[in-house]
Sequence to fold (69 residues):
Amino acid sequence: MSINWPSFSAFLACQTQWRVTSTMAGLLWIGLDYAALPIALTGTDITPALMVDLQAMEGAALEILNEVD
Fold:
């Protein structure tokens, strides 16, 4: 198992916790709803290292989700 698997699994568990707004140009992905993460990650030890990993994956995802064609 990869050392990144726990962080990746946590990121997938948060997949329904995105903040999104609608604009005239379409959807704008704002980021993860941090207030909801403890609920989404029930049973997971939310360590500072895990949060750093989640924020890194969130940043990379935001770049892709908010790409302009």
